[in-house]
Protein backbone atom coordinates (compact mmCIF):
# COMPACT_ATOMS: atom_id res chain seq x y z
CA UNK A 1 0.00 0.00 0.00
CA UNK A 2 1.48 3.33 -1.09
CA UNK A 3 2.41 6.02 1.44
CA UNK A 4 0.50 8.39 -0.83
CA UNK A 5 -2.65 6.55 0.16
CA UNK A 6 -2.85 8.38 3.49
CA UNK A 7 -6.14 10.21 3.96
CA UNK A 8 -5.78 13.95 3.36
CA UNK A 9 -9.39 14.59 4.36
CA UNK A 10 -9.46 16.32 7.75
CA UNK A 11 -12.89 14.79 8.41
CA UNK A 12 -13.82 11.18 9.05
CA UNK A 13 -12.88 8.55 6.48
CA UNK A 14 -15.78 6.55 5.05
CA UNK A 15 -16.12 2.81 4.59
CA UNK A 16 -16.19 3.39 0.83
CA UNK A 17 -12.77 5.07 1.00
CA UNK A 18 -11.42 2.11 2.96
CA UNK A 19 -12.85 -0.28 0.35
CA UNK A 20 -11.21 1.62 -2.53
CA UNK A 21 -7.83 1.72 -0.80
CA UNK A 22 -7.98 -1.95 0.16
CA UNK A 23 -9.22 -3.02 -3.29
CA UNK A 24 -12.25 -4.80 -1.86
CA UNK A 25 -16.01 -4.31 -1.89
CA UNK A 26 -17.91 -2.04 0.49
CA UNK A 27 -19.64 -5.08 1.96
CA UNK A 28 -16.26 -6.68 2.71
CA UNK A 29 -15.39 -3.67 4.86
CA UNK A 30 -18.72 -3.99 6.67
CA UNK A 31 -18.17 -7.71 7.30
CA UNK A 32 -14.67 -7.07 8.62
CA UNK A 33 -15.95 -4.73 11.31
CA UNK A 34 -19.07 -6.72 12.21
CA UNK A 35 -18.47 -9.32 14.93
CA UNK A 36 -19.35 -12.84 13.80
CA UNK A 37 -19.40 -12.08 10.06
CA UNK A 38 -17.31 -14.22 7.71
CA UNK A 39 -14.35 -12.69 5.86
CA UNK A 40 -11.12 -14.22 4.57
CA UNK A 41 -7.86 -13.61 6.42
CA UNK A 42 -6.35 -11.83 3.40
CA UNK A 43 -9.35 -9.53 2.98
CA UNK A 44 -9.34 -8.77 6.70
CA UNK A 45 -5.63 -7.89 6.52
CA UNK A 46 -6.17 -5.51 3.59
CA UNK A 47 -9.17 -3.82 5.20
CA UNK A 48 -7.48 -3.33 8.56
CA UNK A 49 -4.35 -1.93 6.90
CA UNK A 50 -6.43 0.52 4.86
CA UNK A 51 -8.47 1.49 7.91
CA UNK A 52 -5.31 2.23 9.87
CA UNK A 53 -3.86 4.28 7.02
CA UNK A 54 -7.04 6.33 6.77
CA UNK A 55 -7.63 6.50 10.53
CA UNK A 56 -11.05 4.97 9.90
CA UNK A 57 -13.49 4.30 12.74
CA UNK A 58 -16.83 2.54 12.49
CA UNK A 59 -19.78 4.93 12.71
CA UNK A 60 -21.67 3.12 15.45
CA UNK A 61 -24.21 5.95 15.66
CA UNK A 62 -25.29 5.55 12.05
CA UNK A 63 -25.18 1.77 12.33
CA UNK A 64 -27.36 1.82 15.41
CA UNK A 65 -30.02 4.36 14.44
CA UNK A 66 -32.55 1.59 13.91
CA UNK A 67 -31.69 -0.08 17.21
CA UNK A 68 -33.16 1.38 20.39
CA UNK A 69 -30.28 0.14 22.56
CA UNK A 70 -27.72 1.99 20.43
CA UNK A 71 -29.33 5.40 20.42
CA UNK A 72 -27.89 8.25 22.50
CA UNK A 73 -29.43 9.49 25.73
CA UNK A 74 -29.91 13.20 26.40
CA UNK A 75 -29.33 14.65 29.87
CA UNK A 76 -30.87 18.08 30.40
CA UNK A 77 -29.84 20.20 33.36
CA UNK A 78 -28.66 23.55 34.65
CA UNK A 79 -26.14 24.72 37.24
CA UNK A 80 -24.07 21.66 36.40
CA UNK A 81 -21.03 22.95 38.27
CA UNK A 82 -22.81 22.74 41.63
CA UNK A 83 -21.59 19.89 43.85
CA UNK A 84 -24.96 18.13 43.85
CA UNK A 85 -25.54 18.30 40.10
CA UNK A 86 -21.99 17.28 39.22
CA UNK A 87 -22.19 14.20 41.47
CA UNK A 88 -25.56 13.18 40.04
CA UNK A 89 -24.27 13.70 36.50
CA UNK A 90 -21.25 11.54 37.26
CA UNK A 91 -23.42 8.67 38.52
CA UNK A 92 -25.72 8.86 35.49
CA UNK A 93 -23.01 9.02 32.85
CA UNK A 94 -21.00 6.19 34.42
CA UNK A 95 -24.06 3.92 34.47
CA UNK A 96 -25.08 4.77 30.90
CA UNK A 97 -21.55 4.34 29.57
CA UNK A 98 -21.39 0.96 31.28
CA UNK A 99 -24.54 0.02 29.38
CA UNK A 100 -22.93 1.11 26.11
CA UNK A 101 -25.09 4.18 25.59
CA UNK A 102 -23.70 7.44 24.26
CA UNK A 103 -24.66 10.49 26.34
CA UNK A 104 -25.41 14.01 25.13
CA UNK A 105 -25.46 16.63 27.93
CA UNK A 106 -27.31 19.91 27.33
CA UNK A 107 -26.60 22.78 29.72
CA UNK A 108 -29.80 24.78 30.10
CA UNK A 109 -27.89 27.78 31.44
CA UNK A 110 -27.05 28.66 27.81
CA UNK A 111 -30.47 30.23 27.20
CA UNK A 112 -33.71 28.71 25.98
CA UNK A 113 -33.12 29.38 22.26
CA UNK A 114 -29.74 27.64 22.29
CA UNK A 115 -31.14 24.78 24.34
CA UNK A 116 -34.02 24.26 21.90
CA UNK A 117 -31.50 24.05 19.05
CA UNK A 118 -29.46 21.54 21.02
CA UNK A 119 -32.56 19.48 21.78
CA UNK A 120 -33.40 19.40 18.09
CA UNK A 121 -29.91 18.10 17.44
CA UNK A 122 -30.47 15.22 19.85
CA UNK A 123 -33.65 14.34 17.96
CA UNK A 124 -31.72 14.45 14.69
CA UNK A 125 -29.39 11.87 16.22
CA UNK A 126 -32.46 9.79 17.09
CA UNK A 127 -32.20 10.22 20.84
CA UNK A 128 -35.27 8.51 22.25
CA UNK A 129 -34.85 9.35 25.93
CA UNK A 130 -34.11 12.43 28.01
CA UNK A 131 -33.21 12.53 31.70
CA UNK A 132 -34.03 15.89 33.26
CA UNK A 133 -32.07 16.89 36.35
CA UNK A 134 -33.70 18.96 39.06
CA UNK A 135 -33.12 22.68 38.75
CA UNK A 136 -33.57 25.14 35.96
CA UNK A 137 -34.81 23.33 32.82
CA UNK A 138 -38.09 25.14 32.06
CA UNK A 139 -41.33 23.26 31.59
CA UNK A 140 -41.54 24.21 27.90
CA UNK A 141 -38.36 22.26 27.12
CA UNK A 142 -39.66 19.18 28.88
CA UNK A 143 -42.91 19.50 26.94
CA UNK A 144 -40.87 19.59 23.73
CA UNK A 145 -39.22 16.29 24.68
CA UNK A 146 -42.57 14.67 25.51
CA UNK A 147 -44.22 15.92 22.33
CA UNK A 148 -41.39 14.47 20.27
CA UNK A 149 -42.23 11.02 21.62
CA UNK A 150 -39.18 10.70 23.84
CA UNK A 151 -39.17 8.77 27.07
CA UNK A 152 -38.69 11.46 29.74
CA UNK A 153 -37.37 10.71 33.22
CA UNK A 154 -37.45 13.53 35.76
CA UNK A 155 -35.20 13.57 38.82
CA UNK A 156 -36.53 15.66 41.72
CA UNK A 157 -39.29 17.43 39.74
CA UNK A 158 -42.20 15.83 41.52
CA UNK A 159 -45.56 15.57 39.80
CA UNK A 160 -45.11 18.24 37.11
CA UNK A 161 -45.80 16.11 34.03
CA UNK A 162 -48.26 13.19 34.05
CA UNK A 163 -46.66 11.49 31.03
CA UNK A 164 -43.14 11.58 32.46
CA UNK A 165 -41.47 9.14 34.81
CA UNK A 166 -40.29 10.51 38.14
CA UNK A 167 -37.41 9.72 40.47
CA UNK A 168 -37.97 11.68 43.67
CA UNK A 169 -37.13 12.08 47.32
CA UNK A 170 -39.92 11.51 49.83
CA UNK A 171 -39.90 15.15 50.84
CA UNK A 172 -42.90 14.91 53.14
CA UNK A 173 -41.09 12.46 55.41
CA UNK A 174 -37.73 14.21 55.04
CA UNK A 175 -38.96 17.70 55.85
CA UNK A 176 -41.04 16.41 58.76
CA UNK A 177 -37.82 14.93 60.10
CA UNK A 178 -35.89 18.18 59.57
CA UNK A 179 -38.52 20.14 61.50
CA UNK A 180 -38.75 17.54 64.27
CA UNK A 181 -34.97 17.44 64.78
CA UNK A 182 -34.76 21.22 65.20
CA UNK A 183 -37.64 21.23 67.68
CA UNK A 184 -36.15 18.28 69.58
CA UNK A 185 -32.87 20.20 69.84
CA UNK A 186 -34.71 22.95 71.71
CA UNK A 187 -35.03 25.43 68.83
CA UNK A 188 -38.09 27.66 69.06
CA UNK A 189 -37.52 30.43 66.50
CA UNK A 190 -37.13 28.73 63.14
CA UNK A 191 -36.27 30.01 59.68
CA UNK A 192 -35.88 28.57 56.20
CA UNK A 193 -33.20 29.94 53.89
CA UNK A 194 -34.06 29.15 50.28
CA UNK A 195 -33.15 30.26 46.78
CA UNK A 196 -34.68 32.90 44.55
CA UNK A 197 -34.07 30.50 41.65
CA UNK A 198 -37.27 28.66 42.71
CA UNK A 199 -36.20 25.33 41.28
CA UNK A 200 -38.79 22.55 41.78
CA UNK A 201 -36.71 20.62 44.32
CA UNK A 202 -36.06 23.70 46.44
CA UNK A 203 -39.68 24.83 46.31
CA UNK A 204 -40.91 21.45 47.52
CA UNK A 205 -38.40 21.51 50.40
CA UNK A 206 -39.82 24.88 51.42
CA UNK A 207 -43.45 23.84 51.17
CA UNK A 208 -43.02 20.51 52.95
CA UNK A 209 -41.05 22.10 55.82
CA UNK A 210 -43.67 24.83 56.17
CA UNK A 211 -46.40 22.17 56.17
CA UNK A 212 -44.65 20.31 58.98
CA UNK A 213 -44.40 23.55 60.96
CA UNK A 214 -48.04 24.44 60.31
CA UNK A 215 -49.15 21.03 61.56
CA UNK A 216 -47.33 21.82 64.82
CA UNK A 217 -48.73 25.38 64.97
CA UNK A 218 -45.22 26.81 64.65
CA UNK A 219 -44.36 29.98 62.77
CA UNK A 220 -41.35 29.84 60.45
CA UNK A 221 -39.61 32.74 58.70
CA UNK A 222 -38.77 32.21 55.02
CA UNK A 223 -36.26 34.25 53.02
CA UNK A 224 -34.79 33.86 49.53
CA UNK A 225 -32.01 36.46 49.22
CA UNK A 226 -30.32 35.02 46.14
CA UNK A 227 -29.33 31.95 44.13
CA UNK A 228 -28.51 28.57 45.66
CA UNK A 229 -25.01 29.72 46.58
CA UNK A 230 -22.63 30.28 49.47
CA UNK A 231 -23.15 34.04 49.23
CA UNK A 232 -26.90 33.62 49.64
CA UNK A 233 -26.23 31.98 53.00
CA UNK A 234 -24.07 34.93 54.04
CA UNK A 235 -26.78 37.43 53.03
CA UNK A 236 -29.44 35.41 54.83
CA UNK A 237 -27.42 35.37 58.05
CA UNK A 238 -26.95 39.13 57.93
CA UNK A 239 -30.68 39.65 57.49
CA UNK A 240 -31.98 37.11 60.00
CA UNK A 241 -29.39 37.48 62.74
CA UNK A 242 -29.79 41.26 62.87
CA UNK A 243 -33.43 40.91 63.92
CA UNK A 244 -34.52 41.75 67.47
CA UNK A 245 -35.43 38.10 67.98
CA UNK A 246 -33.10 36.16 65.71
CA UNK A 247 -33.82 32.53 64.87
CA UNK A 248 -32.10 29.76 66.80
CA UNK A 249 -32.85 27.00 64.29
CA UNK A 250 -32.15 27.23 60.55
CA UNK A 251 -33.03 24.90 57.70
CA UNK A 252 -31.14 25.68 54.48
CA UNK A 253 -32.45 24.10 51.28
CA UNK A 254 -28.88 23.36 50.10
CA UNK A 255 -25.57 22.73 51.85
CA UNK A 256 -23.84 25.56 49.99
CA UNK A 257 -26.32 28.03 51.45
CA UNK A 258 -25.81 26.47 54.88
CA UNK A 259 -22.02 26.84 54.65
CA UNK A 260 -22.35 30.56 53.92
CA UNK A 261 -24.81 30.99 56.77
CA UNK A 262 -22.52 29.20 59.24
CA UNK A 263 -19.48 31.29 58.33
CA UNK A 264 -21.36 34.57 58.66
CA UNK A 265 -22.96 33.50 61.95
CA UNK A 266 -19.60 32.60 63.42
CA UNK A 267 -17.30 35.28 62.07
CA UNK A 268 -19.63 38.28 61.78
CA UNK A 269 -21.97 37.65 64.72
CA UNK A 270 -19.75 35.63 67.04
CA UNK A 271 -22.31 32.86 67.46
CA UNK A 272 -21.43 29.37 68.61
CA UNK A 273 -22.79 26.49 66.57
CA UNK A 274 -24.66 24.47 67.73
CA UNK A 275 -24.79 26.01 71.24
CA UNK A 276 -26.37 29.30 70.09
CA UNK A 277 -27.69 28.28 66.70
CA UNK A 278 -28.57 24.97 65.03
CA UNK A 279 -28.27 24.57 61.25
CA UNK A 280 -29.46 21.74 59.00
CA UNK A 281 -28.63 21.58 55.30
CA UNK A 282 -29.58 19.36 52.40
CA UNK A 283 -27.55 17.35 49.82
CA UNK A 284 -24.53 16.16 51.89
CA UNK A 285 -21.96 17.66 49.53
CA UNK A 286 -18.27 17.14 50.20
CA UNK A 287 -17.90 20.47 52.00
CA UNK A 288 -20.52 19.42 54.56
CA UNK A 289 -18.03 17.00 56.13
CA UNK A 290 -15.14 19.48 56.25
CA UNK A 291 -13.82 20.24 59.73
CA UNK A 292 -14.78 23.90 59.38
CA UNK A 293 -18.46 23.02 58.94
CA UNK A 294 -19.32 19.52 60.19
CA UNK A 295 -22.78 20.24 58.83
CA UNK A 296 -25.76 18.13 59.81
CA UNK A 297 -27.59 17.49 56.57
CA UNK A 298 -29.74 15.12 54.56
CA UNK A 299 -28.02 12.81 52.09
CA UNK A 300 -29.79 11.84 48.89
CA UNK A 301 -28.97 8.31 47.66
CA UNK A 302 -27.66 9.62 44.33
CA UNK A 303 -26.15 6.33 43.16
CA UNK A 304 -29.44 4.50 43.77
CA UNK A 305 -31.49 7.27 42.16
CA UNK A 306 -29.24 7.29 39.10
CA UNK A 307 -29.47 3.51 38.88
CA UNK A 308 -33.27 3.66 39.07
CA UNK A 309 -33.41 6.29 36.31
CA UNK A 310 -31.11 4.26 34.08
CA UNK A 311 -33.02 1.04 34.73
CA UNK A 312 -36.24 2.70 33.60
CA UNK A 313 -34.46 3.84 30.46
CA UNK A 314 -32.64 0.58 29.72
CA UNK A 315 -35.53 -1.71 30.63
CA UNK A 316 -38.70 0.29 29.97
CA UNK A 317 -42.09 -1.16 30.80
CA UNK A 318 -45.56 -0.06 29.78
CA UNK A 319 -46.68 0.97 33.28
CA UNK A 320 -43.50 2.83 34.22
CA UNK A 321 -45.13 6.27 34.51
CA UNK A 322 -45.42 7.59 38.03
CA UNK A 323 -43.04 8.29 40.89
CA UNK A 324 -40.39 6.19 42.54
CA UNK A 325 -39.59 7.65 45.96
CA UNK A 326 -36.35 7.43 47.91
CA UNK A 327 -35.57 8.34 51.50
CA UNK A 328 -33.00 11.03 52.28
CA UNK A 329 -30.91 9.98 55.27
CA UNK A 330 -30.04 12.39 58.08
CA UNK A 331 -26.27 12.70 58.50
CA UNK A 332 -25.81 14.03 62.01
CA UNK A 333 -22.64 16.05 62.50
CA UNK A 334 -21.81 19.09 64.61
CA UNK A 335 -24.37 21.78 63.76
CA UNK A 336 -27.35 20.24 65.57
CA UNK A 337 -27.63 19.93 69.34
CA UNK A 338 -28.67 16.59 70.84
CA UNK A 339 -32.36 16.24 71.59
CA UNK A 340 -33.27 17.92 74.87
CA UNK A 341 -35.74 15.19 75.87
CA UNK A 342 -34.94 11.60 76.76
CA UNK A 343 -36.13 10.23 73.42
CA UNK A 344 -33.08 11.02 71.28
CA UNK A 345 -34.04 11.23 67.60
CA UNK A 346 -32.02 9.20 65.12
From TrEMBL:
Keywords: DNA-binding, Repressor, Transcription, Transcription regulation. SMART domains: HTH_LACI. The keyword Zinc-finger does not apply. The keyword Transcription regulation applies. PROSITE patterns: HTH_LACI_2. Residues 13-67 form the HTH lacI-type domain. One of its GO terms (molecular function) is DNA-binding transcription factor activity. This is LacI family DNA-binding transcriptional regulator. It comes from the Bacteria.
Amino acid sequence: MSNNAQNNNPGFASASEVARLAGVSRSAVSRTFTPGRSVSAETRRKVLAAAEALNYHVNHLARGLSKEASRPVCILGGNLSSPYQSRLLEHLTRRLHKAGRAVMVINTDDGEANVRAALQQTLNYRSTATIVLSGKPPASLIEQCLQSGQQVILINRQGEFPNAENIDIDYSATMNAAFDHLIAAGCRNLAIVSSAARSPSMVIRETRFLAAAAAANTDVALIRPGSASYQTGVLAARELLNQNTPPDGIFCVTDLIACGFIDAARYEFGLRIPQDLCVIGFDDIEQASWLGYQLTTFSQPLAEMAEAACERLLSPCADAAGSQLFDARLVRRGTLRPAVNTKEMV
